[in-house]
Specification:
single chain, Rossmann fold, Jelly Rolls, 2 domains, six-stranded mixed sheet
């Protein structure tokens, strides 16, 4: 083929593509899950560089390093006034972020958090830690965001340890090192139940673990004795406060035959007991003189209990639990046995629930009405929690900015602001507090700026935060919370 014919062929192809581009709607043609869109000639010949949202104020905000010492009580924005023992909050260090990161309160005002703030005031001298449960979707996986806020709170108000975590999990935990025997299996509220699982007892972590298969009650147990181990060590790469713990608590139950439960601390067996068959939630607590280098929990029996979690914590101060569920939208709690949830929350003595959701519904939404409906569903879950945990304080965290590609630019997903607004409206109506993460990180189209920051504050999926970004979000949320606590504390002096 001669060069002239090649050129003619290419021109013909370009002409046909240009004609198709003119015939297709500007916003593209959707074929099922596939969207077909042709760029205009102007977009091809004269592409415009995406204008990024200015997040200089966030980039300038200092955050704590994992490697920095955490032994002092003072933080970047909070200090102890030794003359009056009052906590002094320096809001000027947040300028100009104060308005964007503020907590939004229901009709009753800031009293919605006063019970929690009162517990915080006395946390360091209490006989047990005050409990914060941080629920969310995959943005929290691996203890992201939670780890930072936990460390800030424990540094300020006392407390140690990573809190409650699952035995078997789908991702490593940033703040605790786990080693498991190979026979542990995970059962989650987010996955399809096995045929023989006839119950919904998932517990406070929305998942439980077993070392023998689930059998129908009518099936006789095998006579083979199974042995399973859970080895827990301090994670040396995490914040210092999470590396120290003096108590270990085990939550388990519903085994059809006796089990042997053994605790081994730094190679020395410290307890060995036989636990009778049970059809209820059981707890076991072990206390240590100092933080062990390693603890091993060993279970032996012909039938595994459902193990709902292990908690490594201190004896007072703050305990904060990271509870992510990949793909969760925040209304999966209705699938869990409510009696067990209530009992486990009571055992944990929960003072604050943080519910961080909204992102996973966005890809499936087709209208603002559907976003409003999601908000109503979410509000019903808040009402559910208020019945399960009477008197608990609740903070709802709305979705972060999430981007899709539109031409050459990354823009905010459709209906994200509708979801944010619906969650806020229904959270406040139910007496919960709302924190607008979308607005805090810069609002519309801000995720692109987080991805392209140096170092990147978000991943290339334009959805999830990087470790640095998670610390920024943690600092923004903590600053809003502690600022309002300081106001409460100061008014009581």
């Amino acid at each position: 083929m001669t060069p002239a014919r090649v050129l003619a062929f290419l021109c013909a192809v370009l002409l046909v593509l240009a004609l198709i581009g003119q015939l297709l709607p500007k916003d593209g043609l959707r074929l099922g899950s596939l969207e077909l869109r042709f760029p205009s000639a102007r977009e091809v010949l004269f592409p415009e560089e995406q204008q990024l949202v200015d997040i200089g104020d966030i980039l300038a905000l200092p955050t704590d390093s994992v490697t920095m010492p955490m032994d002092t009580l003072a933080t970047d924005t909070m200090a102890v006034d030794t003359a009056s023992t009052a906590l002094v909050f320096d809001a000027s260090k947040l300028a100009p972020l104060e308005e964007r990161i503020k907590l939004h309160y229901p009709a009753g005002g800031k009293a919605a958090l006063h019970d929690f703030f009162a517990a915080l005031e006395s946390a360091g001298s209490a006989s047990k830690p005050i409990r914060i449960l941080h629920y969310g979707d995959s943005q929290l996986e691996g203890d992201r965001i939670t780890a930072y806020v936990r460390n800030k709170l424990q540094t300020q108000f006392g407390g140690n340890g990573p809190g409650l975590f699952s035995v078997a999990d789908i991702v490593p935990h940033f703040s605790v090192a786990r080693e498991l025997s190979d026979n542990w299996e995970r059962y989650s509220v987010m996955t399809k139940k096995p045929k023989n699982q006839k119950h919904d007892r998932f517990g406070a972590l929305s998942a439980f673990s077993r070392f023998t298969p689930i059998l129908a009650d009518t099936v006789a147990l095998d006579t083979v004795v199974h042995t399973a181990t859970i080895t827990v060590k301090p994670e040396r790469r995490c914040f210092g406060k999470a590396q120290a713990w003096s108590d270990c608590r085990l939550f388990y139950g519903w085994h059809r035959a006796p089990i042997t439960l053994t605790m081994t601390v730094d190679g020395t067996e410290t307890s060995n007991e036989t636990i009778p068959a049970s059809e209820q939630l059981l707890t076991r607590e072990w206390r240590f003189d100092g933080t062990p280098k390693q603890v091993v929990i060993t279970m032996k029996g012909v039938d595994s209990p459902d193990v709902f979690g292990v908690s490594m914590e201190g004896r007072n101060g703050v305990a904060m639990d990271n509870i992510p569920a990949r793909g969760a939208a925040g209304y999966e709690f209705r699938r869990s046995d409510q009696a067990l949830l209530s009992r486990m929350y009571d055992e944990l003595d929960v003072k604050l629930l943080i519910l961080q959701y909204g992102g996973n519904v966005l890809p499936n939404l087709k209208s603002a009405d559907e976003a409003a409906q999601y908000g109503r569903f979410f509000g019903a879950q808040i009402a559910r929690f208020k019945k399960l945990v009477p008197g608990v304080s609740i903070i709802v965290i709305g979705p972060s900015d999430m981007s899709i590609k539109e031409g050459d630019a990354y823009v905010t997903r459709p209906f994200l602001e509708d979801v944010r607004d619906a969650m806020k409206t229904n959270a406040l109506a139910q007496g919960a507090v709302f924190w607008d993460m979308y607005e805090a990180m810069g609002g519309k189209n801000s995720m692109a700026s987080w991805v392209q920051a140096d170092p990147p504050l978000a991943a290339n999926d334009y959805t999830h935060f990087s470790p640095q970004g998670a610390r920024k979000v943690g600092e923004l949320f903590y600053s809003a919370l502690i600022g309002d606590f300081a106001e409460y504390h100061s008014a009581r002096q």
